[in-house]
Each structure stands twice: as C-alpha cells, then as structure tokens.
Fold this protein.
Amino acid sequence: MKQILPYISYVGLALSIIPPVLVFMGVIDIDFHYTLMAVGMLLWFGTAPFWMKPTDLEEKEPEETTGRI
C-alpha cells in the first residue's frame, strides 16, 4: 500500500496544478475547476505526509551543542 501512495499524491498534485491552466485556456468552466482542485487537495494532503516522512525520524539523536556563543 505504501508504494501506491506517491502515485496517488502525484495525481492529486496534478489535479491542483492543471485545472487553473485549463480554465485560463477556456477548456473547462470555473465550477468544474473548483471540483478538481478540491479533489486534488484532498488526495495530496491525505496521502503525501505518509510517504514523505523520513522513516528514521525517531532514531535520530539530537545534535550536541558545543556551548559556544
């Protein structure tokens, strides 16, 4: 399942980028544009955080400070 998430995210990103161009070119109307943008936003923000998060985030130790100012 985790291998599919980037592809779904990229579809969502495409649905967020392409519709404004299509409205500018007069291919689609503004209401359909809003629908595509909403679907793209949900796909992107619903899937991207799960595969973009580094897996070793918990394993990293905080960097030591040198004490210098």
Helices lie at 5-25, 30-52. The chain has a mean pLDDT of 86. The first helix runs from residue 5 to 25.
